[in-house]
Write a structure and sequence with these properties.
47% helix, 5 helices, mainly alpha
Length: 139
């Protein structure tokens, strides 16, 4: 009941929060579109809420470390593909069974994303990502 009461108070703000996330995502997409990294897709059949803003980069761990050094917090939400998680071991789907899933798990990283993300913090994230990408892939 407590959880329901809290969510009932939050629910009227949901559309505004989603719209704010979409604005942050639009800034990120605009800023990163020429960097050659894989960005989230906004499907034509619906509206992306951008709960997370997850990109794919080669050498994700070095990318994450460089962003951390630049003061940008990131997160890897799904570091282990489902078929390699202990809970699914009984199915016997070992490493190499789903190479695309394994590759994605090694490349995905989520950038800061929340409805109240201030423009100056967005600018810091954008500048840091651009700097790290340009260091890794010189023109």
């Amino acid at each position: 009941e407590v959880q329901a009461a809290i969510l009932r108070v939050k629910l009227p703000h949901l559309n505004e929060w989603i719209e704010n996330r979409r604005k942050v995502a639009a800034r990120y997409i605009d800023a990163f579109s020429e960097l050659g990294i894989q960005l989230p897709l906004d499907p034509s059949y619906g509206t992306h809420a951008y709960h997370q803003f997850t990109i794919r980069v080669p050498d994700r761990d070095a990318f994450q470390k460089a962003l951390q050094e630049a003061g940008v917090q990131t997160m890897v939400y799904y570091p282990v593909p489902l078929h390699l998680q202990q809970v699914h071991a009984m199915y016997g789907q070992g490493e190499g069974t789903f190479p695309h899933s394994e590759k994605a798990a090694n490349e995905v990283i989520s950038l800061p994303m929340f409805p109240e993300l201030k423009p100056e913090v967005q600018d810091q994230v954008i500048a840091a990502v651009k700097s790290v990408i340009k260091e890794k892939v010189p023109a």
